[in-house]
Design goal:
There is one protein chain. By secondary structure, the protein is α+β, with helices and mostly antiparallel strands. It is 25% helix and 30% strand. The chain is built from eight helices and 20 strands. The strands form three sheets. Strands 5, 6, 7, 13, 14, 15, 16, 17 and 18 form a nine-stranded mixed beta sheet that branches. Strands 1, 2, 9, 10, 11, 12, 19 and 20 form an eight-stranded mixed beta sheet that branches. It has a three-stranded antiparallel beta sheet with strand order 3-8-4. A hairpin with a 7-residue loop joins strand 15 and strand 16. Helix 1 runs parallel beside helix 5 and helix 2 crosses helix 5. The structure holds flavin-adenine dinucleotide. The site of flavin-adenine dinucleotide has 41 residues, from helix 1, strand 3, strand 13 and strand 18.
Length: 389
């Protein structure tokens, strides 16, 4: 049986970052992915992901975000490719909304540069927007987007260059961690390692029955529309946004790299799914959900549909991440339940997972991500659901 310091199951967004981190630290590491490496079926699909610093979900994410920006810039240097584009970011909603209040809480607690802007001023400054007068916006200059699919490829390339081994088209079937070593069984073979990191995203509940109550996969759809006024939706003129509207939470991007203004809606049609059985066809009902947001808030983007894509969230019960030891094994680390807002954190999640696997602890405050919070009844400020991209 071939032996490694660590095995990373799932070479997607988080797995590719953890793999690179193990390899960078000189560990003998293997990553397994059930599909091609990289693949277009994981949660990074759809070209771009939002990154922002004034984090409405909880101020505790902000130090991790500061580190994430550093790590993305470092990865860009390694990859010799721009991965992070700073466009400015808009959080919009009623003044009393969780999005606005949460964003301001993070700004205050961490003294982040920001501006509170009226809807009329947003619409004047950024003419692609048509916010209704009852909304306000928190503008943050650090907001922007990551080229998510390129980021995964960059982590994988950097990991390979640092000595990692990657097996595509090899599915983790089972693991057994008795006796301090983890023995891993796949559909192609058996391996052993000092530690196993599980980064299998929306497939988590299907692979590990013990984690089923912590992670649920949910179908999402993205849409790219041809703007009627393309000049309003260019990078430099259109900040990324995260909007709490009466219809739900929309998020979107300027036109970049592929044609069209890109928009998504959190929870989309609220379809919990088994990852292997997700419906990857985009239907008229999916289009209608996203058209509603375009027509109401971005009418100058309401041209023909160019593309649509299905993707999956992996939701935890309170929509905060799960980065912790497996309940049944000290040397199995779970990084899952990123609940539709994890991509921007890939690098730092990789660092934390590797810290936990190799050092037994981490310098980062990860209390918010421990599984035990989900087994304590009653709920708290921390366990209130707040989900934005
Ligand atoms: C539509 C959409 C929009 C989003 N927008 C944002 C955003 O704007 N900003 C943001 O920060 N986040 C965003 N997110 C969330 C972010 O993309 C995810 O949190 C992140 O990509 C999750 O990464 P992951 O590593 O957990 O999963 P994935 O990237 O899906 O990786 C899981 C990998 O595990 C592999 N795998 C699964 N089972 C097995 C097995 N048994 N054996 C081997 N391999 C296996 C899969 O093939 C896959 O490659 C969005 C997500 C979606 C779907």
């Amino acid at each position: 049986m071939k032996s490694y310091d660590a095995i990373v199951a799932g070479a997607g967004s988080m797995g590719s970052a953890a793999l690179y981190e193990f390899a960078r630290r000189g560990r003998r590491v293997l990553a397994l992915d059930q599909f091609d490496v990289p693949n277009a079926l994981g949660a990074s699909v759809g070209v771009t992901r939002i990154i922002r610093l004034a984090y409405s979900e909880h101020p505790k994410y902000v130090p991790l975000l500061v580190r994430s920006y550093e790590l993305w810039r470092a990865l860009e240097a390694t990859a010799r490719e721009q991965l992070l584009f700073v466009t400015g970011g808009i959080d919009a909603g009623l003044e009393t909304s969780e999005t606005i209040q949460g964003s301001l809480r993070s700004c205050d607690e961490h003294r982040l540069v920001h501006e509170v802007i009226s809807a009329a001023d947003v619409n004047r400054k950024f003419p692609g927007y048509r916010l209704p007068p009852e909304m306000v916006a928190v503008y943050q200059p650090d907001g922007g987007f990551l080229m998510s699919e390129r980021c995964v490829a960059a982590h994988l390339n950097a990991a390979l260059a640092s000595g990692a081994e990657i097996h595509g088209r090899e599915r983790l079937l089972d693991w057994d961690a008795s006796g301090g070593t983890v023995r891993v069984t796949t559909d192609r073979g058996r391996y052993e390692a000092g530690a196993l990191v599980l980064t299998i995203g929306p497939w988590t509940p299907g692979v590990d029955s013990e984690l089923r109550r912590y992670v649920v996969a949910e179908r999402q759809v993205l849409l790219w529309a041809q703007p009627r006024r393309p000049e309003y939706f260019e990078v430099g003129r259109f900040p990324v946004f995260n909007m709490e509207a009466p219809e739900g939470r929309f998020y979107g991007f300027p036109v970049h790299s592929v044609p069209g203004f890109k928009i998504g809606k959190y929870h989309h049609r609220r379809e919990s799914v088994e990852a292997d059985a997700v419906d990857r066809t985009c239907h008229a009902e999916d289009e209608a959900v996203l058209r509603e947001g375009i027509q109401r808030y971005f009418p100058d983007a309401d041209g023909p549909t160019l593309a649509m894509k299905v993707c999956m969230f992996s939701n935890s019960p309170d929509e905060h991440f799960i980065i912790d030891r497996h309940p049944a094994a000290e040397n199995v680390i779970v990084a899952a339940g990123f609940s539709g807002h994890g991509f921007k954190f890939c690098g730092v999640v990789g660092e934390i997972a590797v810290d936990l696997a190799t050092e037994g602890g981490t310098r980062w405050d990860v209390e918010l991500f421990r599984m035990r919070r989900l087994t304590i009844s009653g709920g708290s400020e921390r366990t209130r659901p707040t989900r934005h991209p």
